[in-house]
Specification:
Blueprint lengths: L7 E4 L1 H6 L11 E4 L1 H10 L5 H20 L8 E2 L16 E4 L16 H15 L5 E4 L3 H9 L4 E2 L17 E3 L4 H4 L3 E6 L2 E7 L11 E3 L7 E8 L2 E5 L19 H10 L6 E6 L5 H15 L5 E6 L15 H5 L4 H10 L6 H15 E3 L13 E6 L6 H8 L7 E6 L15 H9 L5 E6 L6 H9 L1
Parallel strand pairs: 1-2, 1-5, 2-4, 5-6, 7-10, 13-17, 13-18, 14-15, 14-16, 16-17
Antiparallel strand pairs: 3-4, 8-9, 9-12, 10-11, 11-12
Helix pairs in contact: 7-8, 8-10, 12-13
């Protein structure tokens, strides 16, 4: 980023359609919108996709600014006053919104003037000539346009104000290893037993930062593991979690194969945890654990009425309407992970093929597949909702889904940020990353990053070597 002095940021269309609030995120600096960008927003406004909704929202924001400007021309710019219902982080300094009011006849050298990107570059060159003392910066999520701008000497940046954190490696993992001298460093420990469970109260040191439902453990295979139940007044209450790695203790016939899976099953089975995020690479068991915990609580404990599974249909991009059948039948091609894991979970010990068929029918009646396209306006009551491939959701889509939760509903988000397929989303701007970072301090949410693959030695070797 350029450092000192007031600047003018030229916003590309993809920035506005990715984040309509980007208009208000440049503090005291001015924002410039070329005429080509307004035309592209107009072309993109029709439809029911998220991109179309964002294009319409940008137009509404601009219209509100024009209406609030009062009488007179807008050649000098509009004050970028944030709408009252728009909650954004950042300072209160306000810049101006500028528009392209003249048409540049000459295009950049060797550039085809019929290409929208080249017309945007032409407007930037004209803006620089009219404001020789003010730095002009192009903001675009289009790498090729940024390369073109650099060729013509125009500073260009990616839009990064929507990042949940600066470095993905700093993302909260949900579990942490304690120092081998943990007990020596915490001599004042109070312990007690209640309803067959063991609890510890530990006074936190200044260099320790724990979160509710975080899982901590001492190094070594057979060393104790703990779950942080609550934090208050500088003290943390720890609980020894259930051991789902033992053969006599399983969830719908599924055992935990490593420490992280054991932590995940404890959190998935806890009715006091309303929101769980599981992050991990392929083969770490995210979908299997979530389904097993869901079936146990729907079929056996009857804590929830049914399981609802959904995911973003990224490969289609717009709609699933071209597929034949009902909503559930349209979603089936994207639910291969559900089918594969149900084959493991719906394997009865007795009854042979007849028993297997009956079990499949029974489970299918309690698992509903729903499309993200039809989630707006819905409310889920006493449901166990699994959101698969959540790394492909934008923060806005994630908010739309999580606000569907009614009383008694548990939401489980699964994803692998190394497999983001949505354009303009990265590890630090994914809705899943946002959810993990924003919910980590909430008493009724939990997160676990699964790191160890459990599919096969072939899958493990391929994951490490390819």
């Amino acid at each position: 980023m350029m450092s000192e002095g007031k600047r003018v940021y030229v916003l590309d269309t993809n920035v506005l359609m990715h984040d309509p609030t980007s208009l208000f995120r440049f503090e005291e600096h001015d924002v410039f919108i070329p005429m080509t960008v307004l035309e592209e927003l107009d072309h993109a406004k029709k439809g029911t996709s998220e991109v179309s909704r964002n294009a319409r929202q940008v137009s509404r924001f601009i219209n509100e600014l024009i209406e609030g400007h009062g009488e007179g021309g807008i050649g000098a710019g509009l004050r970028l006053t944030r709408p009252k219902d728009l909650r954004l982080r950042g300072g209160a300094q306000i810049g101006r919104l500028l528009f392209q009011t003249t048409q540049r006849t000459a295009q950049p050298t060797h550039a085809d003037g019929r290409v929208p990107d080249n017309r945007i570059l032409g407007s930037i060159l004209e803006l620089r000539e009219s404001r020789p003392g003010t730095p002009v910066v192009l903001v675009s999520k289009d790498i090729n346009l940024r390369i073109k701008a650099s060729i013509f000497g125009v500073p260009a940046e990616d839009y990064e104000n929507d990042r949940a954190l600066d470095d993905f490696s700093l993302l909260y993992a949900g579990h942490a290893e304690l120092s081998p001298k943990f007990w020596d460093r915490h001599p004042e420990v109070r312990s007690w037993s209640e309803r067959g469970r063991t609890f510890y109260e530990v006074k936190l040191r200044k260099d320790e930062q724990w979160y509710p439902n975080q899982c901590v453990y001492l190094p070594g295979e057979n060393e104790p593991e703990f779950r942080v139940l609550r934090i208050a007044d500088g003290k943390a209450v720890l609980q020894i979690p259930d051991d789902y790695e033992q053969s006599h203790h399983s969830v719908w016939g599924i055992h935990a194969r490593n420490r992280e899976q054991n932590f995940a099953l404890n959190l998935l089975m806890d009715p006091d945890v309303d929101f769980v995020t599981l992050l991990g690479t392929a083969g770490t068991g995210k979908t299997l654990l979530a389904l097993a915990a869901g079936l146990a609580q729907v079929m056996d404990q009857q804590r929830y009425r049914e399981i609802i599974m959904t995911r973003a249909t990224v490969s289609v991009g717009e709609d699933i309407g071209f597929l034949p059948g009902t909503e559930e039948e349209k979603m089936t091609p994207w639910m291969g992970a559900l089918t594969d894991n149900l084959e493991v979970l719906a394997d009865p010990q007795e009854g042979g093929s007849w028993g297997r068929a009956a079990t499949n029918d029974l489970l299918a009646s309690r698992i509903k597949i729903r499309s993200l396209n039809f989630m707006r306006g819905r409310t889920f009551l006493s449901r166990y909702v699994i959101i698969d491939e959540a790394q492909n959701l934008t923060p806005k889509q994630m908010k739309t889904l999580l606000t569907r939760a009614g009383p008694g509903t548990k939401m489980v988000c699964l994803g692998n940020v190394e497999q983001i397929d949505t354009p303009y989303l990265t590890e630090t701007t994914s809705g899943l990353t946002y959810a993990v970072d924003r919910f980590k301090a909430w008493q009724h949410s939990a997160h676990i990053t699964l790191r160890r693959g459990e599919r096969s030695r072939l899958a493990d070797f391929a994951s490490e070597s390819l």
